[in-house]
Amino acid sequence: MLPLLGTLREKIDTMKQLYTVKNSKLHGKGLFAKCNIKAGTNIVEYVGEKITKAQSDRIAEIQLKKAQKNREEGQVYIFTLNDKYDINGNVSYNKARLMNHSCNPNCDTDIVDDKIWIRSFKDIKKGDELTYDYGFSFDPDDFRDHVCKCGSRKCVGFIVTENDWKKLKRFLMKLIKNCEKAT
Ligand SMILES: C[S@@+](CC[C@H](N)C(=O)[O-])C[C@H]1O[C@@H](n2cnc3c(N)ncnc32)[C@H](O)[C@@H]1O
Ligand SMILES: [Zn+2]
C-alpha cells in the first residue's frame, strides 16, 4: 500500500474507534468511551502474539518481576485463548491491552473463531472508563500479587473473577478467624 494511503487508513480507523486512551485512576493508562456505546457492541479486538502455555508462564513471570520494580508497568498482558494457547497482548498495536479490570465492569469478552472481542454488556456513557473482569481464578498462593483498585462498591480488593468471589471470601474469613484466635 502507498505510504499516504496507509496514513489515511490509520486516520479513518482512529475516527471510527469507539474509545480513546487516557490516564486512569485505576492504574496507568486505560480505555475510555469516546461516545455513548450501546450494550452488545464489539468495541476492540484483543490482538497479539499467539503463544503456548509454557511460553506464557515464562513471559508472565518476567512481566510480574518488571511490574514489581516499576509500578507503571502492568502485571499481566496475557489473555487465555483456549486450553493450548494464550495471546501475549503486550504489543503496541494492541490497544485493548490498556483496558483495566473492575469488580463492576461494563464490558465482557467474546471469543469467536480465535478472535477475542471486548464487548459492552451495558449501555456505556461517553467518558466512562471501559473495564472487564480479567477472569483471574482465585489462587490462595498468588491472589495477593493482584490488588484491585477499581473503587467500585462491589470491589473485593483483589483482581479475582466474580465466579471465584465465594472462594476468596471464604479464604479471607478463615484468615481473619485465625488472626482473632491468635490475639
Ligand atoms: C493489561 S494491563 C492494563 C493496562 C495498564 N493500566 C497499563 O497502563 O499498562 C493489566 C495490569 O494493569 C493493572 N490493573 C488493571 N486493572 C487494575 C485494577 N482494577 N486495580 C489495580 N491495578 C489494575 C494491573 O497491574 C494489571 O496486571
Ligand atoms: Zn475491584
Q: Which segments are poorly predicted (pLDDT under 50) over 5 or more consecutive residues?
A: none
Give the structural class. alpha+beta
Tell me the distance between the termini.
71 Å
Q: What's the CATH architecture name of the largest domain?
A: Beta Complex
Helix content: 25-40%
Q: Strand arrangement, largest sheet?
A: 1-2-10-7
Q: Give a short account of the largest sheet.
A: 4 strands, mixed
Strand content: 15-25%
Spell the H/E element sequence: HEEEEHEEEEEEH
Relevant CATH superfamily of the largest domain: SET domain
The CATH C-level class name of the largest domain: Mainly Beta
Q: List bound small molecules.
A: S-adenosylmethionine, zinc ion
**Beta-strand segment tally:** 10
Structure write-up:
The longest helix has 18 residues, at 165-182. The mean pLDDT is 92. Helices cover 27% and strands 24% of the residues. It has 183 residues and is α+β, with helices and mostly antiparallel strands. It has three helices and ten strands. The chain has two domains: 3-49 and 91-182, Beta-clip-like (Beta Complex), CATH 2.170.270.10; 50-90, no CATH class. It binds S-adenosylmethionine and zinc ion. Zinc ion is lined by residues 102-103, 148, 150, 152, 155.
